Amino acid sequence: MALVLSYDSPVKRNAYVPPKIIIREVSKVYKTKDKEFMAVEGVSMEIMENEFVSVVGPSGCGKSTLLRMIAGLEETTEGKIWVDGKEVRGPSAERGMVFQSYTLFPWLTVADNIAFGLKLKGIPAAKIKEIVDKYLQLIDLANFAYSYPRELSGGMKQRVAIARALANSPSVLLMDEPFGALDMQTKASMQEMLLDIWRKERTTIIFITHDIEEAIFLAQRVYVMKGRPGSIQAIFEVPFPAQRSGDVKDVESFILLKKKITAMLKN
Ligand SMILES: Nc1ncnc2c1ncn2[C@@H]1O[C@H](COP(=O)(O)OP(=O)(O)OP(=O)(O)O)[C@@H](O)[C@H]1O
Ligand SMILES: [Mg+2]
C-alpha cells in the first residue's frame, strides 16, 4: 500500500466539487509472447481542476505507462480512470499530450504543426490563424511560423509541441518529461513559460519528470513513484503559491523538500 505523507492540496478541496481526474487502483500488465510484466500496480490519484501535479520516479518505474493510460493511448489491465466524471476509453481532444521525445510532423511548418488539430476539428481558417498567432507569440516563435521542424533547435521544437497541444484548448495537459533533453538555461525559461500558461489558461496539468527540482518548482503536489512494479510511494504538498519565480529554488523549505524526495528515490 502506498505511504501517503500528505494528501492535502493547496487547491481547495470541497466536498461538492469532484476531482477533475480520478485514477482508481490502476494496474498495467504488459504481455509479450512468453511472459507477463507488471509495469504499474494499484495506482490511485485524485487531481482537482486547475491543479498542477508532477510525478517523479526512477527510470522504468511506469511513469510513461501511467500517463499513456490517462491519455487513453493505453488500456488499463485493472482499475479505472475518470476525467470530468467520464470513464477514459480512448484518446480525446480534451486531453492534450506532450511526449518525451519531439513529435512534430516534419513535413509541416511550425504554424501548420500548431494548426493541425484545429484543422481536423473543422475550425474556420481565420479563427485558426488567430489561435496559431496567439500561441506563436506565447512560445516566442512568431518569426519561425514558416520554418520546418528540422530548422529548429530541440528547445524550439518542444515549444512548438507544447503550443500544438495547447492550441486545442485541452482541459487536461499530460506532459511526459517534455524538458528532459534541454540545457539548463532553456529548461528554466520553458518552466517559467509553462507556469505562465497554466495560470492564464487554467489547465489541469500532470507533468512527469525525473528532475526533482523541476517537479517541486512547477507543481502544487509531487507524486513520488517507485518501480517494480510501479506504484505511488508518497505524495508531497508543495508549500509555495502558484505565482513563483526561480528564486524559490533557494528557499530553505524548497531545498529540504528536494532532499527528502531525493533520499526517498535512493532507497
Ligand atoms: N509496450 C511495452 N511492452 C512491454 N513492456 C513495456 C512496454 N512499455 C513499457 N514497458 C515496460 O514497462 C516498464 C515501465 O516503462 P515506462 O516507459 O512506463 O517507464 P518510465 O517510468 O516512463 O521510464 P523513463 O523514466 O525511462 O521514461 C519498463 O520496465 C518497460 O520496459
Ligand atoms: Mg517515460
Indicate the CATH topology of the largest domain: Rossmann fold
Largest sheet: number of strands, sense, barrel closure: 6 strands, mixed
Secondary-structure element order, N to C: EEEHEEEHHHEHEHEEH
Main-sheet strand order equals: 6-7-8-3-9-10
> What CATH architecture of the largest domain do you see?
3-Layer(aba) Sandwich
Shape verdict: globular
Q: Helix tally?
A: 7
Give the end-to-end Cα distance, rounded to a whole number of Å: 17 Å
Helix-strand category:
alpha/beta
Molecules bound to protein: adenosine-5'-triphosphate, magnesium ion
Q: What is the count of distinct domains?
A: 2
Helix content: 25-40%
Count every beta strand, where a strand is a DSSP E run of 2 or more residues: 10
CATH class of the largest domain: Alpha Beta
**How big a fraction of the residues is strand?**
15-25%
Architecture overview:
The protein has 267 residues and is of the alpha/beta class. It has two domains: 3-94 and 171-266, Rossmann fold; 103-169, no CATH class. It has seven helices and ten strands. The chain has helices at residues 63-71, 110-120, 125-138, 154-167, 184-201, 212-218, 252-266, and strands spanning 21-31, 36-47, 52-56, 78-83, 86-87, 95-98, 172-176, 204-208, 221-226, 231-237. It has a six-stranded mixed beta sheet with strand order 6-7-8-3-9-10, with helices on both faces. Strands 2-1-4-5 form a four-stranded antiparallel beta sheet, with helices on one face. α2 crosses α3 (125-138). The longest helix has 18 residues, at 184-201. The protein starts with 20 loop residues before the first strand and ends with a helix. 37% of the residues are buried.
